[in-house]
Design goal:
Helices cover about 35% and strands about 10% of the residues. The chain is of the alpha+beta class. It is elongated.
């Protein structure tokens, strides 16, 4: 009888399911200054929260930790249970969701960052951390924009050092011939001068000569320096004219002096380095409503905190008034009988 010889080697264990990776820039982000991992990290939490917290704590950086991904990876609990557990972990100080606004290259978008801390933190620590996230993001953008670009990789072979004789000294009397460049073009008329010169075409009663435009150019330039354009200047000069204009240059000079517009505040100049402007807000762990860190203690907005705490127990609830049903029915019958 043939005997089947079995190999003594152990079977290869089934590989564990890979963690779901979030999109680049999203997913789990660990908060700084955490204590080393221990067996009793989440011992004070209930069983469900302790189980989910242990799983999230073992997730690598950048893994998806939203409600759907965690419910898919943890078959013991559904999405409702996972959402309630994440809310409890936020109240316990292990979880915060931060919404960051990234503005750059003509686009503006909001992204949500999820920060995890094995060590429980209070609301004051998370508020300071949220401000630090915005400050560090601005510093990173400034450093990235100020960093010089790397030198281009040269495809040529490295030069071989060859000893040569030192170059002969240049005589100080030697003069390098100057190359003839393009002739400088004369500067054109200023926008203020052109606006004055076109007044006669818009309103014939204000036709100015070249000498008049040169005299009034400085006054018109002061208008443009205050933030108005040439159309505004022309409209202010030609509106409300009298039926007869004896001296166009005198009338225009008087209006340029008396109707000078107020100086408008200068618009903020765009960043020369092109660094995106950022704004950071905290999100409610329950409903996702954004707000300032101070307005979301324990990571919850006012509405979610009110729903969790239940109705306030400050004033005692009034007992319902007892009503005589028979008397009420009798009164209704009397009303029906009345003509």
């Amino acid at each position: 009888m043939a005997t089947e010889h079995l190999s003594s080697a152990l079977r290869t264990p089934a590989a564990s399911l890979p963690y779901d990776r979030a999109q680049r820039g999203y997913g789990k982000r660990s908060a700084p200054a955490q204590r080393p991992s221990r067996a009793d990290d989440f011992a004070l939490l209930p069983e469900r929260e302790r189980y989910i917290a242990g799983y999230v704590d073992r997730l690598p950086e950048g893994c998806a930790m939203d409600v759907k991904s965690l419910a898919k990876a943890l078959p013991l609990y559904g999405q409702m249970a996972v959402g309630t557990a994440l809310r409890a972990l936020g109240v316990a100080g292990h979880l915060r969701r931060v919404r960051c606004q990234v503005v750059g290259s003509g686009q503006s978008r909001w992204v949500t960052r999820t920060f995890w801390s094995r060590t429980a933190r209070d609301s004051e620590w998370w508020d300071a951390f949220t401000r630090a996230v915005e400050h560090l993001a601005d510093q990173t953008a400034e450093c990235a924009s100020a960093a010089p670009p790397p030198p281009p990789a040269s495809t040529e072979a490295p030069e071989r050092h060859v000893e040569t004789e030192p170059p002969a000294p240049v005589s100080p009397t030697a003069v390098v011939p100057r190359q003839r460049g393009p002739e400088p073009t004369p500067a054109g008329p200023s926008p203020a001068y052109l606006a004055l010169a076109r007044l006669g075409r818009v309103e014939p009663r204000l036709a100015l000569s070249a000498a008049d435009c040169a005299v009034l150019e400085e006054l018109a330039t002061a208008w443009l320096d205050r933030g108005v354009n040439t159309d505004y200047l022309t409209q202010a000069l030609v509106s409300g004219l009298p039926s007869q204009v004896g001296s166009p240059v005198g009338l225009v000079r008087r209006r340029l002096t008396d109707k000078v517009p107020p100086r408008l505040p200068a618009a903020p100049a765009p960043d020369a380095q092109g660094a995106p402007a950022r704004r950071v807000l905290m999100e409610c762990t329950e409903c996702g409503a954004p707000g300032e860190p101070e307005a979301l203690p324990d990571g919850l907005c006012r509405r979610c905190r009110t729903q969790a705490d239940g109705p306030s127990s400050g004033a005692p609830a009034e007992a319902p008034v007892e009503r005589d049903i028979h008397a009420l029915v009798g009164g209704l019958r009397d009303l029906l009988r009345a003509p």
